[in-house]
Amino acid sequence: MAITPCVLYTECMILSQSGPSLKELSRQLRLDLLDMIYQSGHGHIGGSLSALNPIIAVYFSPIFNFKKDHFVLSAGHLCPALYVVLAKAAYFPKDLLSSYSSFGSILQGHVSTQVPGVEYSSGSLGQGLSFAAGLALGDKSHTTICLTSDGEHNEGQIWEAAMFASKYKLGNLINIVDHNKYQIDGSTDQIMPTNDLAAKYIRFGWTVLTVNGDNINQVINTLKKAKNSNYPVCIIANTTYGKGISFMQYDFKYHSVDNLSQNLYLRARKEILNAK
């Protein structure tokens, strides 16, 4: 189904407002994400909740202009976070969120270029950073931002892309790692430890910045620093898996949910609404 974008979001619409307004934006989008997954009956919620604030920082800041700059969601199953952000940024009508993961919808369980504002169709994990590096090489006058997951760093292609970006000195490439410490069947330390991820990227010739990924303002400030680098930048965003919903936090069983009960849904909604 072809969708014509609404008033295309290209520059800062909300982020000149700071502090409390960003907090309220995060709260509303977290509710939208929860509602969307509950209504559809399934979805990857744990990582989407951890990735949401970093994605908000990317889109709702005056740093980037997405008529020219690029965003690649490598961990494509985290698309619920991207969808609610794109809807808020008026790339498509918000009511389209109710079609998430349904037959015939453009909003499927992995991102696709059918979605307005999306340049990369995801599939197997580990491929998006290579795509982003290619974009950065081909468009050196603009910034390419990629979001990867920490579990995704089990994939060898991530490290091939890291070598490539270093060789070509892609200072216009930023890789945000959603470092929530969990993946589909356990903690990253149990499944395949990445140990000192920062040290690995440094050895590959990247500049590395570490930030509290749950704090939107801190992520914004880190993105500002990253944009002025002469080398590719890896931002390790330390986030909370299942952020905002206590019974989902730090529990890999919420990597995805199927038919979340009404009681748990209402409990989760109440927690988000009452969060300080």
From TrEMBL:
InterPro entries with a match to the protein in the record: THDP-binding, Transketolase_N
CDD domains per the UniProt record, alphabetical: TPP_TK
Domain of life: Bacteria
Signal sequence residues: none
Keywords: Thiamine pyrophosphate
Domain Transketolase N-terminal: 27-251
Pfam families (UniProt xref): Transketolase_N (PF00456)
Cofactor: thiamine diphosphate
Family under the similarity heading: Belongs to the transketolase family.
The protein's name: Transketolase
Natural source organism: Candidatus Shapirobacteria bacterium GW2011_GWE1_38_92
